[in-house]
Structure formats: C-alpha cells, structure tokens
Amino acid sequence: MPSTRTVCPYCGVGCGVIATPRAGGGVDIAGDPDHPANFGRLCSKGAALGETLSLDDRLLQPMIAGKRATWSRALDLVATRFTEAIRSHGPDSVALYVSGQILIEDYYVANKFMKGFIGSANIDTNSRLCMASSVAGHKRAFGSDTVPGCYEDLEEADLVVLVGSNLAWCHPVLFQRLAAAREKRGTKVVVVDPRRTETCEIADLHLALAPGSDVALFNGLLPYIAGSHVIDRNWISAHTIGFSDTCKAAARTPFHDVVRITGLSEAALHAFFDLFVSTERVVTIYSQGVNQSTSGTDKVNAIINCHLATGRIGRPGMGPFSVTGQPNAMGGRETGGLATTLAAHMDLDNAEHRRIVQAHWVSPRIAGKPGLKAVDLFRAVKAGRIRALWIMATNPVDSMPEADDVRGALEACPFVVVSEVERHTDTTSVADVLLPSLGWGEKSGTVTNSERRISRQRAFLPRPGEAKADWWQLAEVARRMGFADAFAWKSPHDVFVEHARLTATDNDGKRDLDLGDVATLSRGAYDAMQPFQWPRRRARIFGDGRFFTPDGKARFVPTPFRPLATSTSASLPFVLNTGRVRDQWHTMTRTGKTPRLTSHIAEPYLEIHPDDAQPIGLAPATIAQVSSPHGMVLLRVLVTKRQRRGSVFAPIHWTAQVAGRARVDSVVAGHVDPVSGQPELKATPVAVKQFPAAWYGFAVSQSKPVVREVEYWAVAPATNGWCVELAGAELNGDWDATARTLLNLPATADLLSLRDRTAGHFRCAGFDGERLLGALFVAQHPVEVSRAWAAAQLGHHFDGVHERLAILSGRPASGANDKGAIVCACFDVGCNQIIGAIANGCSTVAAVGTATSAGTSCGSCRTQIARMLDAKPTAKTG
Fold first, then answer.
1. Residue 866: pLDDT band by 50, 70, 90 thresholds?
2. Is there a common fold for 4-52 and 63-129+328-533?
3. Alpha carbon distance 766, 23 (integer Å)
4. Which own/partner contact pairs does 534-541 have at CB distance under 8 Å and 24+ positions apart?
5. pLDDT at 874
6. Which residue among 589, 666, 739, 768 is least enclosed by CB atoms within 10 Å?
7. What is the average pLDDT across 598-625?
8. Which fold does the domain 132-323 belong to in CATH?
C-alpha cells in the first residue's frame, strides 16, 4: 500500500510521520527520517498512532437532541439559532471555543466567520490554557508574537535552562535531541521545577523552587548580569528600551529575598547565576510551568529580560524558547484564533490592522475589541450572556478550571454545538447538536510547530460515515447565515492560500508573519508541500537586532514579583500542581484506546512527599481525597521524595468516561493572569486526606466492565480485554453478584470463587467452558496482583480445577514469566524484565536496551531505567 507523509497530532514538536495502510486493515507508523523536526524519531504516543485509529465510539452522523439527523437539518439549526441569538441579543451573545487540534485552515475560517462576519471577537481556544502568557510576553517584549528559537539551538547551546518544562515526558523527541547533544558535546542542563521530574535525570543542576516563584528567580538573575562582564551595554543601547528601569525594579528584590521567596539555597542560586553568566550560548526553554500562572506573562518577560541584557537572542544556540503543547497551537496564533488577536499576527486594537483584514475579507464588519478569553467566556455562559456556543475539537468539561461550573454552565446554555470525533465525551453529553468531524488520518491541511515550521497533515484513510472537515462545517453555517460569497472554498488549499495572501498584504517587513511566497501555490504544489519555517528567507529572527515594535527596538519589561493568587491555609495546606504523563494526551479520547499507552500508568494518581503523606495516614497505593472549594477528586496515592514537600501533583487526563471522581480540573481554581487571561493551573490550594476505603479491588475482563455504585474506579484497555481498579467505602454483601455485573458475564458463565471472611479477601474467576472471561480480586488493603499477567490470561483455556484455582492466586506459578508493571511502552517491557537484565549483569541503560529493547525506540523510559540501575530493585507484582 502507498505511504503518506504527514505530521503527528500530539504535542507542539510537530514530528513527521510516515503512515502506511496495510492491505488487510490497520496502519503501520514510522517516523519520517527527512522531517527536520524529528529526523525519524517518535515518542511512545506517536509510535502507537496506528493503534488508535479504530472507529470504536466514533461520532459518524450529525445528531440533534441525541437523535440522528441529516447534515442539512443540523446545519440549518445551527445557523438559525446563531442568527436568532444575534438578532435578539447582539453579536457578543454567541461564541466559538476551538482547539489546537484543528488545522490552520479550520482556524482561519473560524476566525473570519466570527470576527469579520458575525462581528464579535468571542472566539477563543484551548490554547489559552497552555500558551497565552507566551503570546502576551512576546508582544510586550518584541512587538509581535514571535518565537525566535529553532530546534537546532538545543544542539548548538552550551547551556540549556528548562523552566517549568518536563521535556522528557511532554516533548520527548526534543528531550532526546537535547540528551544526545549533552552526551556528544557536554551541554550543561539546568532544570527549574518544583518537582523532580524525569527531565531532571540529565540535569547538572535542579532548582526545586517554590511554586510560583519563577519571577523572583529571574529578577535575581538580571541585576547579577548587570553587575557582570557579560552585560552588553552597546547592544542594549542600540536595540532595546527600558533596561535601566527594569533592572532597578528587579533590584528591589534583594538577593536574600530571592532566597526566601524561591526557597532555594544561596549556593544553588549562585551556581545557577554563575553558570548563566559564564556561558555564551544559552537557550532557556519554558512551557506550562511558566505559562499556567497568574504571573505567567511576567515570568515570560523576566526570562526574556535576561536574554536581552546579554544580547543572547536570535543567534545559534541562544535565546528564549517557548515550546507549545498542541500540534497547531502556533497555527492558531497565526490565524487569530485567540479572542485578543486578529488574523495574520495582526492586532484588534490597531485600526490599520483592522482595515487590512476587513478589506481582505470583504466583510460587512470587523470586531473592534477583544472578545472573552476562555475562563471569562464560560463564566459568561453561566451568567446567560452567551446564548449560543460552538465547541470544536476540545473537551472543556474536563480541561477548564472549575470544571464542574463549566459543565453546569453548558447544561444551562440555551444552545450548544459540539464538533467532535468521539461520540461520548464529558462535553458531548451536554450538547444540543453534535457534528461529526474528520480525525487525524482523515483530514487534510497544515499545522505550525513550536519552531514556526509549517507541515502538511495529510489524509490516508477514507472518510468514516458522514464525518466532515471542521472548516467545511463552519463555511456551511456561514453560507446559511447569508455570507456565501466569502465562504465559497472548495478545498483546504483554497483556504490556505487566502490565509497566506493576508499575511503578505501591506506587510513589506513590518510584520513578522509573511507567507507571501506560498500564497500562489497551485493545488498540486500545496499537496506536495514540504515542511518549511517562516520566514522562508531567514530561519533565525532577531539576529539582526531588529524587532517588530514601532521603533524596531525590543522592550525590557519590569516584572515585580507577585505571590500566587491564593495561599495555603490550615484547611487547604497543600499546593496542587497538574500536568501530563508520558503516554497520555489531553482527555485520552485517542491515547486511551490502546493498551500500549495505558499500560505504563493506568489510573489517576496523586504524587505526595513521604513527610506529607505519613502524618495524614496516606500509605502507598491507598486512595486520597483531594478537595478545594471548587470540587473533589479521588486519586491513587504515589508516595515519592521526587515531590516537593507541601506540594502535590496530579495528572489531567482522566475523565468521567474512564474513571470515577478523577476530573482533576474540577478542583482547580479559575484565577487568571491579568494580562494573558491564562489560568493558574499549577498552584491551587487543596486539602488532602485518606479516603476511608473498606475494600480495594482489581479486575480483568474480556468485556468492558460495568461499574456501578463504586466511589473509586478507573478502566483501561488491556491486550485481550480490560482492566479496572476499584475501591469502596462500604463492604459488599454479595460479591458473586457484583462480579457477574462488573465482569459483564453471561448468565451461563461458570463462577469460581474463594472467600476469606476473616481476612476480608474475595477472589473469583468467570469461565465460558474452559475459557477465562474475567477475574475479580478484592482485599481490605491495596490488591497485590500481577496486573499484566492477569490481563494476559484473558481468553486462555484452563483445564481442571487446579489450573483455574491458579488464576485466583493473582500471579504466575513459580518459574513462569511475569513481566511486571510496564516501563517501556514501545516494546511492552516490564519492570521485572529490566530487573532481570540488571541482575544478569547489565550495568548501563544501553546494556539493558540491548538485552530487552527497552529504551531503544522513543527513549522516554531511559531515565526510569537509569533510576532502576541506581536502585537495583527486586521484582514486584502489580
């Protein structure tokens, strides 16, 4: 079958992918060795893409009020309800909430529709949650939202400072490029993060600063630079404004206060400052730990100030570098997908920019003021000011802070449209109209990665059911609202070249984004487009000292330190930090489909330091109840010294579709940065206590488990079926009946069970003849079962009572293989296999890789293998 070059749909690295459909079904996935973002590397998520393309639970037809409808009827209804809301309540009574998962072409149409024809800027994106502070910081410093970095800078730098970025898990391919550079040329690495993440394993220095204190750290660095030999006053004078005032403002936080605020030692601060000052080629990479803060914009500018003071920007191996979280977060910024910007990196508050855009669109009106940013938008929905809302390719009922309020707001909203790939999400459950969208592998268009590289995302699968492209859906509604001439495109190519022409209109170098040289591409040339960075004529921006401010000079921005929006208290003594895990993506609608990606971490969890866990009675693998004034979640306890005392961490991925009480953002407060509107997702004061579990359970089942009236549960796919973790506050009176329901056993199935009432143990297995259909293990304490082994027994045949009883032991017989918990998702290598390799003499990560294959593909597990080598652990079950 022919292969298709496309681009990965996950993080902002933008890795090239080669997809090859198999004749008998399925798709083979490989990294594209010619794509300059990854040169053939893929992370575990990218490598498993072919396993996530099933049509299970796909939304395949339009639906109105839960019933199938025609496209014509659904689109007519959307157009009618939007028109009625605008007529009765004005243009600001409707809104779009879109996503970094849609393509440049989709974003462009959505922005044109809202800002140019409806006349409101009430279009925002889930990228507001991940990089709005970077946008605001760039514009304050550079006059434009320009990312000056290139991936090659990681390999040319002598020092890489990672701030609020778990690069190893969130951008694994970039992490491997950095790790390779460190090994080859001795690159120094500093990690600034309250947690000791996997990324810290390659760090020469880890600064475990107090949450929210990044501004104080870099404000302390700026006067240190000013008093050193590296201060470049000639460059500062020629190319910047505001250095003196900014440096004076930073100096108002004296060194001893920097020590106090950050919680770092004087020695650690001096080590970092000396390293930064003494190293010419410095790249500072920052991500959500910087952006997701009520002082996120100031954090960005505090970092940029230090690079401007040294002139270390726009040259090989140096500069501030924001890495984005989604495949097209940058493309959304370029097309005006944020409520605060116009298309083509132009500004809503600039009359000339509004004139250019309106003339290009030939639109009857143009939005003249910023629209509602994400948090304010959903609060406006709750208040009844938004009467019609269209959500596209995102899941705000799970991803927004104060998520229970968001769900309530959507339930009360008069009209909600959701364009989605999946039929069942926590957001589709509150929609009036569902529109089936094309997914990755089916849709065609372009995306921009973190280094401003535009790549083609190409279709290689047939369109399923009645699914349609997002840009087409928007254009059809616009036509029905009377704007047919302006939305008459026939293909994504038509949309792209219109967008490219706009970027070049009245530009002449005045604006950073200029795609004029691809504005005349033919359809064939568009289809064959190779990845390219803009601006095409020079990959490195700002190397000439020219910025996109009116006078061409960069701005130093004073960034006075401000504490977190809310502080801890006696009733809320911990700071909750949220983030991603290695093998999952957003709300798991794609990655949650394959056992390869759920095998490493299969349930929601809470990281807590031992000294915090012990006083409140939290033992490893028990269940914690985490609460704030906004909500409560139940999470498995992971006790680890890698967590900072006083802080706890929980991942964001689990939803009501796959777990009970695990929507972490329902706990998170909705405080936002006053400049960017980005919420403080990294620092919510919470209470943590032990959930009073009367029993714990684990089950494997060939059929999807049916969970009823259980407080804690989490379901994940296994190779031959499903796994489910359980815990309840009350003992069950009839475990046999519970097992039959939970395991979804047919009435004819045989049930073999063992019960120890004194110890509180119950174990059972269901059989169809000799074939294992499922098993349930219950205990008063966290269940010790070899989970990978138990799941692997599903569907196997067992002769006689003795073989069946062996299943109830929960572990293989002596001498049999038990790989243990999965460490390497790429090759399904468990901890016991790695431990065995270490016991047999493997003393390096490379040697373990040779023996087991672990760590030889995406490399994301290499840091965990290195820790295992240091610890030399013994084999474990579960």
1. confident
2. no
3. 37
4. 534/452, 534/454, 539/150, 540/148, 540/150, 540/314, 540/315, 540/316, 541/146, 541/148, 541/314, 541/512
5. 64
6. 768
7. 97
8. Dimethylsulfoxide Reductase; domain 2 (3.40.228)
In b/e form, how buried is each residue of 315-324, taking b as 16+ CB within 10 angstroms? Answer: bbbbbbbbbb
**Angle made by CA atoms 234, 239, 241, in degrees to the nearest 5:** 100
For residue 199, what are the contacts with CB-CB under 8 A and spacing of at least 6?
Answer: 162, 165, 166, 167, 168, 169, 175, 191, 193, 863
- Identify the CATH assignment for 822-871 out of 3.40.50.10420, 3.20.20.380, 3.40.50.300, 1.10.10.1100: 1.10.10.1100
The rounded percent of the chain whose pLDDT value lies above 70 is 99
Q: Which residues contact 286 (CB under 8 A, 6 or more apart)?
A: 134, 162, 163, 164, 165, 299, 300, 303, 320, 321, 322, 323
- Cα–Cα distance measured from residue 147 to residue 314, given in angstroms and rounded to the nearest whole number: 10
Phi-psi domain of 50 (left: phi exceeds 0; alpha: psi -120 through 50; beta: other): alpha
Q: Where are the domains of the chain?
A: 4-52, 63-129+328-533, 132-323, 574-690, 695-808, 822-871
DSSP annotation of 209: P
Phi, psi at residue 345, to the nearest 5°?
Answer: 60, 30
Token pair belonging to 345? 């990196």
Whether the pLDDT of residue 672 is over 90: the answer is yes
Kindly indicate the confidence band of residue 878, based on its pLDDT and cuts at 50, 70 and 90.
low
**Per-residue confidence at 876, pLDDT binned at 50, 70, 90?**
low
User: How many whole angstroms separate alpha carbon 37 and alpha carbon 42?
Assistant: 10
Q: Measure the N-to-C terminal CA separation of the chain; round to a whole number of Å.
A: 40
Pair 149, 161: CB distance under 8 Å: no
Give φ, ψ of 818 to 5 degrees.
-140, 100
Question: What is the edge-to-edge ordering of all strands in the sheet holding 761-768?
Answer: 712-718, 721-728, 695-701, 771-779, 761-768, 750-756
CB 366 within 8 A of CB 116: yes
Which CATH entry fits the domain spanning 4-52: 3.20.10.10, 3.40.350.10, 1.10.3720.10, 2.20.25.90? Answer: 2.20.25.90
Query: What's the full length of the chain, in residues?
Result: 878
763 strand-pairing partners = 754, 777
Interhelix angle for 296-310 vs 132-142, to 10°? Answer: 40
Q: Cα separation of 470 and 542, whole Å?
A: 35
> Phi, psi (5° rounding) for residue 719?
-55, -40
Torsional class of 609: left (φ above 0), alpha (ψ -120 to 50), beta (otherwise) = beta
Contact 313, 320 (CB under 8 A): yes
The structure tokens 């072919």 sit at 50
Residue labelled with tokens 């033919």: 522
What integer pLDDT is reported at residue 757 of this predicted model?
Answer: 83
User: What radius of gyration do the chain's Cα atoms show?
Assistant: 27
Tens digit of pLDDT for each residue in 163-185? 999 999 999 999 999 999 999 99
641 exposure class (CB count in 10 Å sphere: 0-12, 13-18, 19+): exposed
- Predicted confidence (pLDDT) per residue in 351-363, tens digit: 999 999 999 999 9
What is the per-residue DSSP string for 344-393?
Answer: GG-BTT-HHHHHHHHHHHT-S----S----HHHHHHHHHHT---EEEEES
CATH T-level fold of 574-690: Barwin-like endoglucanases (2.40.40)
Q: Does domain 63-129+328-533 have CATH number 3.40.50.740?
A: yes
Find tokens 């730990």 and name the residue: 289
Instruction: Specify the pLDDT at position 380.
Output: 98
Tokens of residue 88, six digits = 């009765």
Give the CA-trace dihedral at 172, 178, 181, 183, to 10 degrees: -70
Beta strand residue intervals within 640-720, DSSP E: 647-651, 684-690, 695-701, 712-718
What's the pLDDT at 877?
53
| 455, 16 contact by CB (below 8 A) | yes
